[in-house]
Design a protein that fits this description.
- The structure is a single chain.
- By secondary structure, the protein is mainly alpha-helical.
- Helices cover 50% and strands 9% of the residues.
């Protein structure tokens, strides 16, 4: 006996299609996953370039942009009016931007998570990377170097240093290709002391021997003091950038005025001969002076733009250097500048 099958109502079909994962195509699943990812990354996305924030900076109106994006946006403004690209709040002068360290750390963690979830090939050492000394065959990228083992290790081969008591006293630093530079050549001990008297890096045995009467300090303490000085330098550089950018805007306005005067002089010289008065020689002299002034202003503008670019490079270098955990490397760079 045939069993009568009740046809599905439109509501039942809709409900079943929403609840049953078997009805979803591969394409639909990918779209759902992508939408979930976009929602998760929304607060970490730059409103200008729509990508993950790079060196996130916060405006006075509490919106976050990539450092390069917001500076490019404001540099392209020819009217000298600065506004937030997101909320359009305007500012009379170029605002001071502060780095959003919390968002920077979140982006860093997100990238690390994506890297771990990616193909293992992404973890292999490439040009400029420090190779793991324990890997056999194709080398993985080292994440730490040990000053006791005098070797560098990838994430997998570094685990014993964290898990085994035998490695408890080993000194780990950021992955470094030139490990010998961090070891005292005389005592074979890690360099952890800075001698202010000789302006050199030494180990604790050196401090107890030929440097015992010198002014010595732990490298970490010297780094803290030096970093405070660099923060002041960064602030001063930011102020100089704003001052020079203001001068650039003023100079551009002056250039426009000179160009208008020159164009007026050209138009005047093209009038019929009967309209040229006796002061033509004076006008020619004025035109020559305006051209000379235009040339001088253009040279000054170019010089200011070069100075601004150099200051921005210096601020970026100091910002990147401030994030290194290697105190010796930090001091080696900053003390030689």
């Amino acid at each position: 006996m045939l069993q009568h099958i009740q046809p599905e109502s439109p509501f039942q079909r809709k409900q079943n299609s929403e609840l049953s994962p078997l009805t979803l195509t591969v394409c639909e699943c990918r779209k759902m996953a992508k939408a979930s990812t976009l929602k998760y990354d929304e607060e970490l996305t730059c409103p200008a370039c729509l990508e993950l924030l790079k060196d996130p900076m916060t405006t006075p109106c509490d919106h976050n942009f990539c450092n390069m994006c917001i500076n490019r946006c404001w540099c392209e403004d020819k009217l000298g009016i600065y506004s937030c690209p997101q909320c359009r709040e305007t500012f009379n002068s170029r605002p001071f931007l502060r780095r959003n360290n919390m968002l920077a750390e979140m982006v860093k963690k997100l990238k690390k998570t994506e890297l771990q979830a990616a193909s293992p090939a992404h973890c292999y050492a490439g040009p400029g990377d420090v190779e793991c000394d324990s890997c056999i065959g194709r080398k993985h990228k080292a994440i730490k170097s040990c000053l006791v083992c005098l070797a560098s290790f990838c994430e997998d081969h570094l685990k014993p240093h964290y898990q085994s008591p035998a490695f408890k006293k080993h000194k780990l630093v950021e992955a470094c290709a030139e490990l010998q530079e961090k070891i005292c050549s005389q005592h074979d001990k890690p360099i952890e002391i800075y001698c202010r008297t000789d302006q050199s890096f030494i180990c604790y045995l050196c401090m107890m021997d030929e440097h015992k009467t010198h002014d010595t300090v732990a490298a970490e303490a010297e780094r803290t003091e030096k970093q405070n000085e660099l923060k002041e330098e960064q602030l001063k550089s930011q102020q100089k950038i704003q001052e020079k950018q203001k001068k650039v805007q003023e100079l551009k306005k002056a250039l426009d005025t000179i160009k208008r005067h020159l164009q007026a002089a050209v138009d005047d010289s093209e009038r019929p001969f009967t309209e040229i008065n006796l002061h033509s020689e004076v006008k020619e002299l004025i035109r020559a002076q305006e051209k000379a002034e235009l040339s001088r202003a253009e040279r000054l503008l170019k010089q200011l733009e070069q100075e601004i670019a150099a200051l921005k490079r210096r601020v970026t270098e100091l910002e990147q250097l401030s994030h290194t955990h290697d105190h010796i490397h930090f001091l080696q760079v900053t003390l030689t500048v």
